[in-house]
Design goal:
two-stranded antiparallel sheet; Arc Repressor Mutant, subunit A; mainly alpha
Length: 151
């Protein structure tokens, strides 16, 4: 029987969640406000009741296992949706695959770093010898002797 055609007396005997369940069985997904507004209209409840009880209604929907709050903020019946259950073994295999890929990428990175051309001077004294040749003819002179040297 459609919820709109039910007697008010019958609806008053039902909980808000049970009425919401009937509404969602008949129609598409609805927001919390749309569901509770329809319930208030069916029970001839005033706007004040709507404002005072909508928070409690939302809480009761979240606790009731028959309902499912979707990503877009709409409520639907859980029985209309399937839940994908991952087996632990499959999840572990996926994690192992990811770890292997990360290790391979790390190894490739390390190999690239090793392959970079880093040139080190094998004998640093080679350049030093050239510098020493430049100073070969120099003489150390005291300050007193500076006056005696001809320019």
């Amino acid at each position: 029987m459609k919820v709109d055609k039910m007697k008010k007396e019958d609806l008053e005997l039902m909980s808000y969640n049970d009425i919401a369940n009937l509404i969602l069985e008949e129609s598409t997904k609805k927001t919390t406000a749309e569901l509770f507004k329809k319930i208030c209209n069916l029970l001839d409840l005033g706007e004040k009741t709507y404002e005072n009880k909508i928070g409690a209604f939302y809480t009761s929907l979240t606790k009731d296992k028959r309902f499912l709050l979707l990503d877009d903020g709409l409520w639907d019946l859980k029985k209309n949706h399937s839940v994908k259950v991952l087996k632990i073994e499959e999840a572990l295999e996926d994690m192992e695959e990811l770890e292997e890929i990360e290790k391979e990428e790390q190894d490739e990175y390390e190999e690239e770093e090793e392959d970079k051309d880093i040139i080190y001077d094998e004998n640093p004294d080679d350049d030093l010898g050239d510098d020493l040749d430049d100073y070969k003819n120099l003489v150390i002179v005291d300050e007193e002797d500076l006056d005696n040297i001809e320019p």
